[in-house]
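Here is one such tokenized protein:
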Amino acid sequence: IWLQIRLPKCDRQSDKGNIMAGLFGTDGVRARINTGPMTAEAVVRLALAAGRWFADHNDRSSHARPIVVIGKDTRLSGYVLESALVAGFTSIGLDCRLLGPIPTPAVAHLTRSLRAELGVMISASHNPHHDNGIKLFGPDGFKLDDKIEAEISALAAGSIALADAPDLGRARRMLDSVGRYVEFAKSTLPGRTRLDGLKLVVDCANGAAYRTAPDTLYELGAEIVPLAVSPDGFNINENCGAVHPQVMAAAVVAHGADAGICLDGDADRLIMADETGKIIDGDQILGCLALAMQERGTLANNAVVGTVMTNRGLEARLGKAGIDLHRVAVGDRYILEKMRQDGLNLGGEPSGHMLMTDFARSGDGLLTALQMLTLLKTSGKKASTLFNSFSPNPQRLENLRGIDPAILQDKKLQSDLATIEANLNGKGRVLVRPSGTEALVRVMVEAETDALLTEAMDALILRITAKA
């Protein structure tokens, strides 16, 4: 939940001013454009604070300025935020490399490849065009941990020392950023693997991957049916992409394709469809990858990481194969934290975020698609056989908008929700939580039968909306 903030003027030594408490959410900073932390003023201040932190922790020689790489998706507001970030970073003395429209995972990769101190992605992921956000990556290509984000937030609330005139940073555009990422993506395939003979529907959500995904798959030999590859600044995620995969699924059937892939606005998540048009979500993808990696002997510690949303059908299928499923809170940062803690190399969410740390430091929809398509190509099987890795329990997710998430702290409501779950008699489960990326409450019910699911969901919605 974002709060309106009032920012102070920023001179050479800016005065302390009020800045939003809890600046960072579960996936960076995000809000509606020109409100709260997504005003130009606020973003300049965020860049000043982040730039100051990384400049102070820069261990380069005194004659080398730190570098920050900045990518964005296709939202019109990206121009505003990119300029604000450049103003802030160069004021501190950081050099900026502007990547243009490019996927979030490409920013993570190029941060390491270019030996930058900081990577920044301007995107609100799967949200509509009127929202935007900022994700930060450290020099190792991983998203910043909570401690660093807290320290940057503290800096943003105080005085920030700016650079002297001779020490100001420079900014320039990188014209080969897309090509660099495409070549990296192709390099993750084993040996001389090609995708010749596969016909694929590719939905890029009019977002950051509108060039990289079709180019990569075409260069690998696939026949491409492109969808949502004409961004206009406003149509990102609009009836397309990973949040609306039905369009892609219908196109797979209409074009007689072997499979379809859907990316979201910043291309860090993947949803697929088999040749029959059946949608393949993140749980099915996670199951397919886990079983294949176990067979190859590349699944670290014979375990994967999911979330509290992961379907129990997947847990049962993996358990049958001797693979442990560890559950964490919703959010790829929590998945990655558990993976690093336990030395694991695969994790994912039903929404399509997949983490494969053998290849990348962040979720990457294109790299995940390449791994799945390689399995499809080399197995000789149809996608409907290969991609449906388990039989899921009936599950339903509802997003309740216009409800203050604070009501979830109400003791009476908590008791009512617990009673509804208890009435499932162990044949299902309930999860109610505030969204970490949007102003809404998410309600999930999973049950052994559709009737049980519907009964529990109706009761949950009734209790929550009545309390609101």
User: Anything to note?
Assistant: Residues 14 and 115 are 30 Å apart (CA to CA).
